[in-house]
Amino acid sequence: MTAKKIDGRAMAKEVREEVKVSVAKRIAAGKPKPGLATVLVGSDPASEVYVGMKKRMCENLGMNSFAHTLEADASQEEVEALVSKLNADPAVNGILVQLPLPDHLDEEKILQAVDITKDIDGFHPINIGRLAQKGRESLFVPCTPNGCLVMLDKSGVDLEGANAVVLGRSNIVGMPMALLLVKRNATVTICHSRTKNLKEICAEADILIAAVGREEIVKKDWVKPGAVVIDVGTHRIDDETKEKGYYLTGDVAYEEVSEVAGAVSPSPGGVGPMTIAMLMRNTLRAAEIQDPM
Ligand code: GUN
After folding, report:
1. Which of 30, 60, 107 lies closest to 279, judged by CA?
2. Residue 234: helix, strand or coil by DSSP?
3. Ligand 1 near 146 CB (within 6 A)
4. Which residue ranges form the domains of the chain, and what is each CATH number?
5. Which of 97, 121, 175 to mutate to test the pocket of ligand 1 (most atoms within 8 A of CB)?
6. 97 lines ligand 1 (CB under 6 A)
7. Given this model, what pLDDT does residue 261 score?
8. 3-state SS assignment for residue 41
9. CA-CA distance, 14 to 10, in Å (whole number)?
10. Would you call 254 helix, strand, or coil by DSSP?
11. Residue among 49, 141, 172, 276 to mutate when testing ligand 1 (max atoms within 8 A of CB)
12. Cys-Cys with 212: which of 86, 101, 168, 181 at CB 3.0–4.6 Å?
């Protein structure tokens, strides 16, 4: 079998087009441009790249972006004061505090300081708590797992009663992904570094979400024939034979897994572009919640 490619790049483009149209409608109706504020503490190169991509995407879709950078040794009070200022700023609809934060900062307190109507990352404890509870809806759902869900939906995957395995239990991806899949009536197993018989558990999955942060850990014999595999990982591997001196890969050995799976999302070109598209969608949603038409 050769798996169908789940083309996150094309799917993200569709989401961005929808956002762009809705933003233009709001502006035509006299509403201000939706605005996203990013808060970056320090100068982690990967975080700088992500924040830059978010800024450019806002501009492409007709939204404002306000990039704030604090020194790596910024105090807890300084970061919280910036968040409070952004909470009070009507031009800012969404606030994104780029993670990870330097170790000396209390991440939970900072995320809790974000106004929940501006919590476009969906990381506020109230939003995450609602995601974990039956019959409750969070205002915003974290962008990466929500992007994975949109990719499954756009691929026509039936989640009801499906056996879903999530590899990884991070606050940003694995845990909210598992909660989202439960909300959609999948039967969910979360695997992590202490899981025994990892390969055997993965090989039972109808839907396998790889978000463990280990390059190409998911091999062909980890995948049930016909299963749907979503690769959340991104790894930069040094390789002097490549023009750039490196190549990018994911948590899934794409080529060999494609021989058995029913559908696989590649990395790069899968979850990455979809995550940014979901962030744009959440920022538009924040503007709609705060200032309905
Ligand atoms: N770091 C890695 N992914 C994310 C994300 O989705 N949001 C934020 N704020 N930081 C991240």
Report:
1. 60
2. coil
3. no
4. 30-118 (3.40.50.10860), 142-272 (3.40.50.720)
5. 121
6. yes
7. 98
8. strand
9. 7
10. helix
11. 172
12. 168
